[in-house]
Known about the structure:
Blueprint: H1 2-16, H2 19-26, E1 30-36, H3 40-56, E2 65-71, H4 79-88, E3 93-96, H5 99-108, E4 114-118, E5 139-143, H6 148-160, E6 166-171, H7 173-189, E7 193-198, H8 205-214, E8 219-222, H9 226-230, H10 232-241, E9 245-250, H11 251-255, E10 260-264, H12 266-281, E11 298-302, H13 303-308, H14 315-320, E12 323-325
Parallel strand pairs: 1-2, 1-3, 3-4, 4-5, 6-7, 6-8, 8-9, 9-10, 11-12
Antiparallel strand pairs: 10-11
Helix pairs in contact: 3-12, 4-5, 6-7
Amino acid sequence: xxxxxxxxxxxxxxxxxxxxxxxxxxxxxxxxxxxxxxxxxxxxxxxxxxxxxxxxxxxxxxxxxxxxxxxxxxxxxxxxxxxxxxxxxxxxxxxxxxxxxxxxxxxxxxxxxxxxxxxxxxxxxxxxxxxxxxxxxxxxxxxxxxxxxxxxxxxxxxxxxxxxxxxxxxxxxxxxxxxxxxxxxxxxxxxxxxxxxxxxxxxxxxxxxxxxxxxxxxxxxxxxxxxxxxxxxxxxxxxxxxxxxxxxxxxxxxxxxxxxxxxxxxxxxxxxxxxxxxxxxxxxxxxxxxxxxxxxxxxxxxxxxxxxxxxxxxxxxxxxxxxxxxx
Length: 327
């Protein structure tokens, strides 16, 4: 009788606990690792878009998840150590925010799920996934690697500068090889010569633009990488100083003073990567989540820069722009 009374008292006590309190006792606080080649200042707006995506997936920061932010601040040699640190922390998922970050995360762990945001790599050729539909390992996410975008960007430059005969292409051969090749192929079709320029440090900029001037380049294509995104403003300023029409993949480049951008919305891609993370936290396996590639592309023009360069943007081109900046 005593044991039965004790059982009933215990049961009543359990039933008296509010549901919210029981949920707090049993819910897991997920740890999300974020690995970026960029700096905290440059990546902050994108991080906020990622956090917004998690909130819209039903997760509350501090209650349902915490984010371990790791920024390499442009120092590539730091990425492997930062990735190893996240692996040692045993985070539940790693959000790798560049081609090099994905490589560092993959080298650090084969067990922790990795959500990639990589605008440069062919994920199959790089061995990140076995197929787009079924990645098969611990990596999934958003990959761009559409070299044909370079052809579109060059065609846009040609519309703005009809006499264009030489174009410089700024990138990094370690991650932009296919884009350099695509630029050369597109240039041949348009009877334009390509000058390949490489920069991996801000200290390279003076020599890069000096080479562009000596090569008589009339325009500059800025290839996508965390490095170029980190240095949008100085690249745009030096291009203007050297009288070069420019185009990039990022709207932020135009906002920083570049002439044009044709490409993707980086904030939107961070938001979409949050949906991947949310699915993984709910139990989905990364190897079974299909890789996505962006399908929506936007076109931006900075009219103030065009005027400073003495360029007239054709009305038909202005009409095609998603946004025209004139300030």
